[in-house]
Amino acid sequence: MFFSLLSFLSCTEKINKNDDSSSGQDSLKIYLSLAEDDKLPLEYKIKYSERAYELVSNQTNDSLNRVNFFKVANRFYNNNHWNSFKRTVLVVLNRAQAAKDSVFIAKSYTYLGDYYSTRAISDSAYMFYFKAEKIYFQLKDNSNLATTRLSKAYLQYAEGDLLGSEKAVFNVLKVLDTQKNAEIVYESYNLLGAIYNDLEEYDKALEFHNKALSSVDSKVIPAEFQSKATSLNNIGYVYNSIKNYKRAKDFYEKALKEKNLKTDKPSLYAMLIDNLAYAKFKLLEKKDLPDMFYRSLKFRDSLKLTSGLISNKLHLSEFYAFNKDTAKAMKFSVESLRESKKMSNSRNVLQSLKQLALIDPKKASLYSEEYIRINDSLQKGERQMGDKFTRIEYETNEIKDQNSNLQEKNRALVYVFSICTLLGLFFYVYKTQQAKHRELLFKQEQQIANENIYNLMISQQNDIEMTRIKEKKRVAQELHDGVLGRMFGVRISMDSLDSMENMDQANAAQKRKKYLTELKHIEEDIREISHDLNREKSELINNFIAILNKLFENQQNTYDSNLITSFDPHIKWELVSNVVKINLYRIVQEALQNCNKYADANTITIDFKSEINYLILSISDDGKGFNTKRAKNGIGLHNIQYRAKECKGTVTIKSAKGEGTILLIKVPIDQKLNLKKNDI
């Protein structure tokens, strides 16, 4: 390259504006200071940078910590220690993402773009610049947005995407405040001048280079950057491209007169010497030639500016070819070709091949073929790189859109989930209230049913009591009218025997025998009345069984199934509370109803058994049966369980498909204790 493109962004040192801010740790300050001390060997500066990195790594993840990480990254960058630079930037990026700090995330992306740019990995560099650009755009940080876009534009220019670079530069100028960002304005105009020169739009190239020159302000742009000399060199190069070597020479000479150029920017100084020598050569001025070429070559070699050395050697080759010194011309062309290939610099390779084809006509066809092949490959690569940059922007935007859509979907899912949760909660509360209401109604119905049964039992008890009273009257009448009258007659007759002194013994014995027979008859009558009284007591005790038998009689009269019932005679029904009797009656009634509805049974068996302290009710059938694990508790089973619970009892159901059903109710009854009380 014969012109200077970069003046700020291409500086090898990153400007660290935050280095003056104290981190609160003196050791960190010392390490950072030593890491940028140019008097120390490189290995020591890297060592101090590593120590600073260790200190910062142990700090809490806050904004000051992230600032310190960038300070350390700057030291690695300035010392060209690229792996450590990348490692440090990735760490601060992770910390910024954890803290959701968009400013530091964008800055990390910019640093990663710089890393990949220096490593000539253009697609990765472009991707990170583009990511940073998006964040700065959202933050409305126009200064950093412009800087990032300009870095992206330089990258596109370097890869031959001239139109893409032009567009990027104009996007930089759109967001700039020209007074506050004079250095970026200068860079933008400078780059546009270079772009239009490559596009062979020389008038525009001169226009923007002159704008760049006019924008130079020594108060804003430090003099050591030699911005004015850079623009003068670039204007001279445009005139060189249109073969106006006289004007080119004037600008080169003017640039070389800038103060401290050789010390401030030695690479630009060497370039101007070479460019001026070439202009003088084209003007056929022999003074100081080829010494100026060699002076520039020596200076560039000391600075290890390989690209500049190639340009120098091409100029020398052309100079010696013009002066018919084919050997030297070939020597410098071959060297430039070899070094260009070593650097993988396709543009310099093309220039070297073109020069060789002119110097060596015998091999001109071979050089031309290689020139055409490399040129086609270069153009194809430039097109592909331009397409790749476009694709990176598209894919990044697409990922962003997908993330936005995903966020919207997530929000929608949250809304739907919230609504469903509220509806579910409402439905649960509604069902709970409904269940409570049903339970209340059920309890009310149970209370009414219990009252009806109680009234029925009271009515039955009243009927029995009336019967008992009638029976007492009958017994009293029997005793009064029958037994007592007869006994009175016997007693009178017995008394008469004592008064019959003259009655013979035989006649008296016969009469006594007659009276004894009568007493036996009276004894039998009394025994019969006693048995009648015992039967009455039994009937009074067993009135609950009578009620159940009435239920069983209705069952047999109504349904075809065979009903078998049994009552353990050891059950002391008089000791069973009315609450238990009522609930047992209802359980039997409910069980019979379930058998009639669902079981389709031929035989139903109901047993009341007595165990120690327990009353066992067993109801079984030989019907269809059911799966107790899958069957839901219906209202019937619920009623049975509820009533057993009211008696402090337990319910056991045994059933299976086609094997009938057994229902066991176990109710606690402390019969021994009650019997003792009864005996007392």
TrEMBL record:
Keywords: ATP-binding, Coiled coil, Kinase, Membrane, Nucleotide-binding, Phosphoprotein, TPR repeat, Transferase, Transmembrane, Transmembrane helix, Two-component regulatory system. CDD domains: HATPase_UhpB-NarQ-NarX-like. TPR repeats lie at residues 186-219, 229-262. The chain crosses the membrane at residues 412-430. It catalyses: ATP + protein L-histidine = ADP + protein N-phospho-L-histidine. Its EC number is 2.7.13.3. The keyword Coiled coil applies. Residues 584-671 form the Histidine kinase domain. GO terms for cellular component: membrane. Residues 512-539 form a coiled coil. One of its GO terms (molecular function) is phosphorelay sensor kinase activity. Pfam families: HATPase_c, HisKA_3, TPR_12. Gene3D superfamilies: Histidine kinase-like ATPase, C-terminal domain, Tetratricopeptide repeat domain. This is histidine kinase. The lineage of its organism: Bacteria, Pseudomonadati, Bacteroidota, Flavobacteriia, Flavobacteriales.
